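Predict structure. Chain length: 287.
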Amino acid sequence: MPPATPPPIFAPTLSAHGVEMPAIGYGTMLFPEPERAAGLVAHAIACGYRHIDTARKYGSEQWVGEGIRASGIARDALFVTTKVTEEDARADDFARSVDTSLKTLGLDHVDLLLIHWPQPNVPLAETLGALAKAKRDGLARHIGVSNFTVPLLDEAVAVCPEPLVANQIEYHAYIRQDKLIAACRRHGLIVACHVPLARGQVLADPVIMEIAAAHGRTAAQVALRWLVQQPQVAVVPRALEFHEIEENIALFDFELSDAEMARIGALRDRNIRVVDPEVRRPVWDEG
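Prediction complete.
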C-alpha cells in the first residue's frame, strides 16, 4: 500500500501555439510489472502530476488508462501524451495506431500526439498529414514530434498542415543540445525532455550532489530543476517508487542561482547519449 500522499503540487504550464503543457509529466517508459503500474500512475496524479506521458512502443497505455480511472480525477484536468511508433508511419497504419492507443487508454482523445521517431523510408509529409488529420478529427488536441533533429524539425514545421507544439528529445545535464533547442525556440516549440536524469547517470555527479546538499534537496530534484528553470523546457521523468514520484514534482519552491545553473550546464560537454537505438536513430545534431 502507498504511504499517505502529501499535499499535491501543481506545476506551472508552458504555452506554445495554443497548448498549455504542465512543466513536469510522469513518464511511463520501461514500466514495472502490471500489478504495480496503475497504482504508480494513480499516485502520481494524487501528488499533483497532471501530465502523463506514454507511447504505443512503451506498452504502458493500458496501465495509464487504469491509473487515470483509479485516480478519480476528471479527464479535462489531465494532459495525456502518447506517441505513434515509426513502424506505423504510413497514413493508414498511423490512423490504426491512434485508434488502438485510444482504445487501450480508454480515452476518446489525447492532449498531445507525437510522432515517436522519424521514419526515413516513408515521406515525412505523409506521416505529418496523418498526424494533422488526427488533430482535425478530434483524436488529439495538439500534435508534435519526438527525436527530430534540426533538419527534420525544419522540414516538419514547413510541411505540417497543423501547428506543431513540442519536440520531445533526450536532454539532461550530460548532453549538449544547444542547436536543437535553438531550433525549437525559433519555431515556438516546447522542448520536452525524456530521460531527463540520463537514466540515473547524473545522480552521482559530484557537482549536482554538492548543489543538492546546499539546497537540502536530492540530486534528482536539482538535475530536474536545472532543466525546468530553462525557458520552454518540460520534463517527463519516470519514477518507480512512491517517494521518487513525490520528490520529482517538488521542484517549484526553490531556485538555482546563475552560478549553479552554469556549473551544471558545463557538465553537458560530456555529451553522453543514453537513448541511441541503432535501428531507428537519425543522424544526430552535433551540440
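Summary: The longest strand covers residues 140-146.
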